[in-house]
Amino acid sequence: MTRQLFRMLLAASLLLGGFAHAQAIEPMPFKDHAQELRFQHLTHQLRCPMCQNETLADSNAPIARDLRNQIFRMMQQGRSDEEIKQYLVARYSEFVLYDPPLKPGTWLLWFGPLLILCGGTGVVLAAIRRRNRGDGAAEAPTDNGDDW
Amino acid sequence: MNRLLPFIGFMLLVGLFGFGIWWNTRHDPNAIPTPLLNKPAPAFNLPKLYEPAQTVSKADLLGKPYLLNVFASWCIECGVEHPVLTAEGPSLGVALVGYNYKDAPADAKNWLARHGNPYGLLIADEPGQTAIDFGVYGAPESFLIDAKGVIRYKHIGPLTPDVVAKELKPAIAAMLKEAP
């Protein structure tokens, strides 16, 4: 008796859980699998403006759902990925792009690491050169023959 | 000099991190700069909240500046902002237009009945479609729109007395000085 009740409860919770999951994903009537893949690819490249650490594809925020629907509609209208991105950038700024475009404002972002790498290399080279110039005698006592 | 080098490096890092903290106390790191600032507001045509048969368009509101305040009954921060709007609204010198965002009309009316209605005009965007054109991603948000329909100022998050005094009122003053 209890066992049967338990089974029924389990079945009900599984069913309800399944519904809740289906609601979160909201299946969209894609034309074909290729379009669905394109949609997935595009929404993974875009940032949800509200919860900024999530992509549009992953976010459950109402605005993310609205923007997904908007992207879906624009795809049905035959707009390209670039046009859809432009549409979102015009409204939500470049913040929505995970991949920042290369322009004067983002030069530091793109080339900063290279700059730091060059600076670090310079410092290391200078240190090595200084050491080779004869300060070696002063450094020698550090090596006292212990091999550990 | 060589001995001081690590200390100088350390102080540079302290300066950098200190600057980061100072910067973040003055700026909301989550606020997205609106690309619409100083550009014409997007066209819209939305029903009035209390008379859904009538719609209001951007063209209807041209000629006079107004503050478009995006709010919803489900939005907790809007409850924080509401008393400020009620208190400061009449002294702003611009009309207050309420933009009810993704809300059931009945819920919105209940909310306004409970908290008071500071708005001269109320429009409703239940599907939230027009809000995408405004770059709205949460409520509350406020747009100052001038007589020509250009967005002059935008604030994301609740309008606090501090924001009203330091940002909104100067923005209104600058706008009215230009075109009274």
From TrEMBL, chain B:
One of its GO terms (molecular function) is disulfide oxidoreductase activity. It is found in: Cell inner membrane. It is a single-pass membrane protein. It comes from the Bacteria. Residues 35-177 form the Thioredoxin domain. GO terms for biological process: cytochrome complex assembly. Its main location: membrane. GO terms for cellular component: outer membrane-bounded periplasmic space; plasma membrane. CDD domains: TlpA_like_DsbE. The chain crosses the membrane at residues 7-25. Gene3D superfamilies: Glutaredoxin (3.40.30.10). Keywords: Cytochrome c-type biogenesis, Disulfide bond, Membrane, Redox-active center, Transmembrane, Transmembrane helix. The keyword Transmembrane applies. Belongs to the thioredoxin family. DsbE subfamily. This is DsbE family thiol:disulfide interchange protein.
